[in-house]
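Field: sequence (string)
Field: structure_tokens (string)

Example rows 1 and 2, in order.
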Amino acid sequence: MQVVFVHGPTGSTVVTVHRADGVSLVLPGYDRKHRVPHDLAHFATERALEMSGGVFGAIAAGGVFGNMRVVGGKPRHDAAARSKLLLDAHRETLTRAEVLAGVVHRAVEEDAAEQAHLLVRTAWRDLATEPFPWSDDHVHEAVRTLDELSVEWEATGTVRVIWPDHLVATLPEARGVRRGRRGRT
């Protein structure tokens, strides 16, 4: 999936996502006060931590957040129901992605890259009871990637990236849907 970040007409970031199914969507940003776009932090963090159920993995699988709009292609006939099912199923991961991307974003904004692994681990303890699932190298990769993308962003006002195919959120089966033939009596 191709993702393009550009400066919007009001100074905020506009993200255009070109999904593999041919649908293109716009995700508006609300981050004029930051040097680095928050959605760019999501991209870098979720990719480095391989969070397929985060924002971009969910979008790649057909998720559409309330503030998004379709700008190209033809969505599936069941796109709204599929999106709801997908976003509901990955709600916990989406929350975790929001918090962790926020920490990585802050580390880059405040030039605190050397503290990022401690900050991310602290945030994780507030989110989950299970052990921290990533290495410090994963966290440093997220910070390094965001830092590199922010240099491009500041120089050109546009960043074009590819979301990896292996990081697409899984779609659970719809509850109450029966598959196959009914037995005859």
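Row 2 begins here:
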Amino acid sequence: MSKTTSAPLVTETIPWHGHADQTEIDRWSAVAQQVADTLAKDVWERDQANETPHREAQLLKDSGLVTLLDPAELGGGGAHWETAFRVVRILSRTDSSIGQLLGYHYVNEGNIVFDAPTDEVRDRWLRRTIDHRWVWGDSVNPVDPGLTLTAVGDDYVLTGHKRFSTGSAVGDVIVVNALAHGGRFDGQIVAFVLEHGREGVEYVDDWDFLGQRLSSSNTVRYHDVRVTPDDVIGSLTDEPFATLLTPGIQLAFGNIYVGLAEGAIAKGAEITRARKNAWFLSKADLYRDDPFIQRLYGELDSRTAAVAALAEKASRSYDTAIDRGHALTADERGRIAIEIARLKVASSELATDATNRVFEATGSSSTRTGVGLDLFWRNARTHSLHDPIDYKKLEVGAYLLNRELQPLSLYT
């Protein structure tokens, strides 16, 4: 679903400025690692149970991670996007379903700043989010048929369905995008918020996929749901700052993939160190001393370190773009999107390759049910199909050759 063109936003201030210092990054990284350590205790069992991750969401709330990006003066963490993406990467080393849940939460809540037309509207939503420690899900899948949002008096009525609605069943609220027919927003795509349990909202328990099983990415159906003016954040525009949300979600993807590669390598190394005998043709006594095994880990670890550095650079560049606020130009917005597209290409291919090839170093016994090494590959293979990687390569190549930027959409 493309954004409609309308008047620029008039929000006067942006809550994020400058860059994270090392103290901030270290502080929240430590919190994220504590959460990851808790998730690690039963990550395999929770994946197999495939239950709606209410306990995991509560863990994110209790840790303070859900309000990490919110302004400190309103009671939030006061951190930067670079820090938020680092947190997503750390969680994804252990449980990328929950890394995805949190990454989408950050971007979904980001609608408050990117789409709110005034500071008053923005602060009202931020205060509610912080006070209630909301987890934000979404229902915006652009490849599904559009939802029907029809004016009825001063309100609207919403009907239709959306698949792949990440965090919807576990979220305290979900952000929904729909084209308005009639009323105040006639002809505009409106971003609005529905609290969990709103009458007419049906959460369909159909998220039973190969991986990312705890991301709560099920279908949501809307049966004549009443949408009031108080539910609306604002209308979507093609203003450069407002459209930074889409590169942001792609940047979250890149950090999820890097985290998956890091987690798979760490888990594989743990298994390899525990093996007592090398292959019978090897001159080494132990698997960890076999030169072929060392070479494989050396290759995977080096590639992962390189892509991780690319992720950190892109995350910092994103904060630079954010700091520009509504002064951000379309060209500047396009360049940050290309930088993130490069990361998407490199990290997606890294994750699917590293989580697969690590089995070459751990042997057939590591494919036994319950070992858990397969979780990384299943998650990487599932999420890397979110949008075709060839089109990200096309974006990068078209820009390199012709300085051509792709049309704005919820994927670019």
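free_text_note (row 2): The longest strand covers residues 173-181.
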